[in-house]
């Protein structure tokens, strides 16, 4: 009687022998899919690039369009009152 390992090997050989005719098509399809994914990734990066903030507008950078500080807050740092 054959064990699990031997049965697995026999099934693997059968699959390889039967799929040899289709193997080039399978590899070609995988290559096309990889190229499509790569081009879509590039297109998304290019689409997001114009929407990105300019280099000097990161967190902590001066922004003229920022909301004004609430009354009683000096310098917008969140510190209360003081002389």
Task: Write up what this structure looks like.
The chain is built from two helices and no strands. With 83 residues, the protein is mainly α.
- Give the termini separation: 93 Å
Number of helices: 2
Q: Can you give the mean pLDDT?
A: 76
How would you sum up the major sheet?
A: none
Percentage of residues assigned to helices: 40-55%
Shape: elongated
Radius of gyration: 31 Å
Which consecutive residue ranges, at least 5 long each, have pLDDT under 50?
Answer: none
Helix/strand-derived category reads mainly alpha
Beta percentage is under 5%
* Helix-strand pattern: HH
Q: How many strand segments? A: 0
List key phrases describing it.
83 residues; mainly alpha; elongated
Give the secondary structure arrangement, pairings included.
Elements: H1 4-19, H2 23-48
Write a concise synopsis of the structure shown:
This protein is mainly α. The chain has helices at 4-19, 23-48.
């Amino acid at each position: 009687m054959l064990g699990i390992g031997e049965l697995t090997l026999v099934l693997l050989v059968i699959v390889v022998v039967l799929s040899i005719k289709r193997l080039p098509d399978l590899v070609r399809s995988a290559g096309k899919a990889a190229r499509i994914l790569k081009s879509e990734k590039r297109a998304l990066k290019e689409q997001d690039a114009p929407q990105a903030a300019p280099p000097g507008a990161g967190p902590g950078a001066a922004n003229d369009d920022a909301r004004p500080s609430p009354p009683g807050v000096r310098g917008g740092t969140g510190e209360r009152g003081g002389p």
